[in-house]
Here is the input.
Amino acid sequence: MAKYEVLIKAVTVQKLSYGEVARRYGVSKTLVHKLHHRWLEEGDGAFEPRSRRPHASPNRTAPTVRERILALRDQLAAAGLDNGADTIAELLARERVTVSRATVWRILTAAGRVSPQPQKRPRSSWRRFTADRPNELWQSDFTHVTLTTGQEVEVIGWLDDHSRYLLHLTAHRRVTGRTVTDTFTTTATEHGYPAATLTDNGMVYTTRLARGGRGRGDGGGNGFETLLATLGITQKNGKPFKPTTQGKIERFWQTLKKHLATRPARSLLELQATLDAFRDHYNHARPHRAIGRHTPAFAYQLIPKATPTAPEDPGIWRVRYDTIDNDGKITLRHTGRLLHLGIGRAHTRVEIICLVHNDNATIIATATGEILADFTLDPTRSYQRKNG
Here is the structure.
């Protein structure tokens, strides 16, 4: 017998008062009164508990927004583009519709648009490395693509490690050592030379593991290695059979091939047109999770770029990522001392980038790129006042 039925029959059959029933069964007198009157109106239907669901949900996502979320998911998926909850939430924000990532996820899940992937590692287990400044490190690799004619071609890319900005993306019948040096030079002409490069150990990039190559006897290296040495650019190579070292460019190929699967090409020219359009979308439209859902183009232009610089050169820049404390300041170690830079309480808890060049420091808001303060550092004083 259900609890409500017991309470109602204690009044109607046993003829107990509301107060007696409440004391005997440990409930409120108000509940007993309500149940009895409900039974008088509905009969035995009052025995079953009623739903606690509210009559109205003022905070419920509007049907038009739900439809837009599902439409964006289908549209992005059909184009082979990133269609996760973060991306959809950012695209809606650009349409002046504020929806949280969690809300988008719940709507996609309820609609059956999300496939569980328990095999994936939790993000908390990742150990992420990112260069501090644009052009501090470029990653490069090439991958194979099959045209609709069955012909195998190769695509080479250059990716900025700090901002994920896709600097270069071209298709070739075959990627050779000459292709590497030509694409690197073309990219550097447009964006400036990087301080370092990171690639795998392919022969087009390095001969360090080859007999007679760089690092083996009197080997002199290939054209790319010679070019980097001449320019003072540090060359880095991942460990053999450890592609995760070049994880950013490797992950990019997964994103690209997902898109190319929806845009099959018959020729190199047709493939290159697709690559050009995708590069523009990737750099200027697609929000990237690893850089705070900003676009790579925004992150690439936010702070000054690194350049090939000798370690003993006094013109080296330092980069510090920090959050302004509750007193409106940050702490910076400079010339062996801890200096406190007063930025202002109006900017409390704002995430910033601190650029230090010799005795000058510039504070930039990470989210907007706004310059919040400039300092001329005085190592003889602990507290530093901003210029102006």
About this structure: The chain has four domains: 3-47, 63-117, 138-300, 317-385. Residues 3-47 form one domain. The CA atoms of residues 316 and 357 lie 7 Å apart. The mean pLDDT is 86.
